[in-house]
Amino acid sequence: MFSLLVSAGAFAAQITGTVTNATTNKPSSGDEVTLLSLASGMDEVAKTKTDSQGHYTLNVPDEGGQHLVRVARQNVHYFKAAPPGVTTVDITVYDAATQVEGLVTDARVFHLQASGGNMDVQELYILNNQSQPPRTKIGNQTFAVTLPDGAQMGEASLTGPSGMPLTVAAVPSGAKDRYAYDFPIKPGQTRFEVTYKVPYSGSHEFSLKPESPLSELGVLLPKSMKFTGVSGGFAQDVDEAGLAVFFAKNVPANQEVKFSVSGEGLIPTEPTGGNAGQPAGESSGTPIPSSSGGTREALWFIVGALVILIGGGAFVMWRKSTTARAAAQDPKAARATAKARAQAQSQPAKPPQGDMLDVLKDELFQLETDRVSGKISQEEYEKSKAGLDTLFRRQMKRK
User: Fold this and answer.
1) Average pLDDT for residues 244-268, to the nearest whole number?
2) Separation between Cα atoms, residue 373 and residue 377, nearest integer Å
3) What are the DSSP calls for 294-317, one per residue?
4) In this structure, are residues 70 and 78 in contact, taking their beta carbons and an 8 Å threshold?
5) Does residue 141 sit in the same domain as residue 115?
6) Is 202 inside any structural domain?
7) With contact defined as beta carbons under 8 Å apart, do 56 and 4 qualify?
8) Are 13 and 82 within one domain?
9) Do the domain assignments include residue 283?
10) Under 8 Å between Cβ of 161 and 82
11) Residue 398's pLDDT is what?
C-alpha cells in the first residue's frame, strides 16, 4: 500500500507536455519552461527546458492548486493554464521579428461617458496578426495610439490569444499626444484597451485617421448624450445595455473620420433595456462596470452547500459499505454499528477544509482577473476582496 501511494503521488505531482514552434512546424527545443503557482500571486515553483523533441517535465510541489505554464521563446512569453488534475499541457510558440507582414487593426470601439467637466473615454483596438508563416511582432514600439489634444492618459491593458489580461505601460514616442507600447503582438487576435480623460464643456468633436483599414468603427454612449456623424457613413445599431450604439463599416486607411458628441451621461452600472443581461460592447468583447456583489454572495451559499453535500455523501457511502461487511460477520456488531451511524447522521457534516481553501483561492484569482480586465469596478472589487479575505482567514484558523 505504501509503494502504491508513493507511486501515485509521484505521477500526480508532474506536468508534462510538448512545445511546438508554429512558425517552422517543428518541435521547439531549448526553450525555458516555468511553472507559476497562482496560490499567492505568480510565484515560480518549478523550471526546466525543452529537449530536442520539444518535450518537458515539471515537478509540481503544490499539487491541487491553480497553475500556469509559461514558455519563453526569443524573449516572448507564452502562457497556458494548468487547472488542478491536469497533467499534460502542450503549448504553441512562434519565432519573433521586428517587421511582420499581415498585422492589421481590424476594429476600433469608443465607450464614452461625460459629467462634471470631463469625458471618460475607453478605446478598444482589435488587432489581428495574420502573418504567414505566423510570427510574433516585437520591438520598442509595436503599437501606438494618438489621443485628442489635452487628454490625460489613464491605464492600458491587453488580452492576447491566450485570453490572459495584462496591464501595459506607455513608452515615449517622440510625438505630441502619441503614446507607444512595446508588448509583443502574437499571431491571432489581441485586444488592446486604453482609457483617458478629455476636458469637456458640453460637446466634443473627435477626429481620427486610421493607420490601417477598419472593418468596423463603433461608438457607444449613454442615451442622454447626442451623437453626430460629422463625416457621414455612420449608422445606428441596436442599443446595448442602456447605451446607444453607432458604427461605420469598412473605413479606409488614412481617411479622416469625424464625429461629435454633446450632453452628459454615465454608463449604467446594470443592464437596462435593449439586450438585457448582455454587457455593452458584447460584440466587441468590451466589458463595462456591472453589479456583481449580490451574485458573488449567492455563489458562496451554493458553493458551501455543494461542498457539504459532497462531503456528506462520501461519508454516508463509506459507512454503508462498512456496515454491510460488519453485518455479514456479526449481527450484534451490525446493530451497534447501525446505532452509531444514526448518531453520526444526527450531527451536521463539515466541509473538507482543503476543498474550501482551494475554492477560495480560485475565487480570489478570478476576482483579480476581473479587476484587471475591467469587468468590475474598484468599489465592487474592494467589497468582494474583503469578504473573500475574511472567509480565507476563517478557513485557515479552522484548519
Assistant:
1) 93
2) 10
3) HHHHHHHHHHHHHHHHHHHHHHHH
4) yes
5) yes
6) yes
7) no
8) yes
9) no
10) no
11) 58
User: In which domain, by residue range, is 34 found?
Assistant: 2-93
Domain identity same for 142 and 212: yes
Q: How many domains does the chain have?
A: 3
Q: What is the DSSP letter of 185?
A: B
Same-domain check for residues 223 and 243: yes
Helices (DSSP H) in the chain: which residue ranges? 2-12, 293-329, 331-345, 353-372, 378-398
Q: In what order do the strands lie in the sheet with 43-49?
A: 43-49, 32-37, 67-73, 76-82
Phi, psi (5° rounding) for residue 318?
-65, -40
Question: How far does the chain reach from its first CA to its final CA, in angstroms?
Answer: 27
Instruction: For residues 132 and 233, state if they share a domain.
Output: yes
* Residue 287: predicted pLDDT: 38
Can you state the angle between helices 353-372 and 293-329, rounded to 10 degrees?
Answer: 160
Q: Mark which of 93, 115, 141 sits at the end of a domain.
A: 93
Which residues partner with 143 through β-bridges?
A: 181
Cell of 366: 478570478
Residues 82 and 189 in one domain: no
172 has pLDDT over 50:
yes
Residue with grid cell 512569453, as numbered in its chain: 77
Summarize pLDDT for 73-95 with one digit per residue, the tens.
999 999 999 999 899 999 999 99
Cβ-proximal residues to 394 (8 Å cutoff; 6+ apart), any chain = none
* Grid cell at residue 275: 439586450
* Shared-domain flag, residues 121 and 217: yes
* pLDDT for res 342: 46
Residue 327: Cβ-neighbour burial (10 angstroms; 0-12, 13-18, 19+): middle
- Specify the 3-state DSSP secondary structure of 398: helix
Q: Beta strand pairing status for 136-137 and 143-146? A: unpaired
- Closest C-alpha among 208, 206, 188 to residue 198: 206
Backbone angles phi, psi at 64, to 5 degrees: 100, -10
- Looking at the DSSP assignment, which residues form a beta bridge with residue 249? 216
65 and 196 co-located in one domain:
no
Q: Which is nearest to 264 in space by CA: 125, 373, 390, 117? A: 117
Q: What is the Cα–Cα distance from 175 to 242, expressed in whole angstroms?
A: 37
| pLDDT reading at 178 higher than 80 | yes
CA 364 to CA 360: how far, in whole Å?
Answer: 6
In 3D, which of 235, 248, 263, 361 has the Cα closest to residue 303? 361
**C-alpha count within 13 angstroms, C-beta hemisphere, residue 119:** 27
Place of cell 481590424: 106
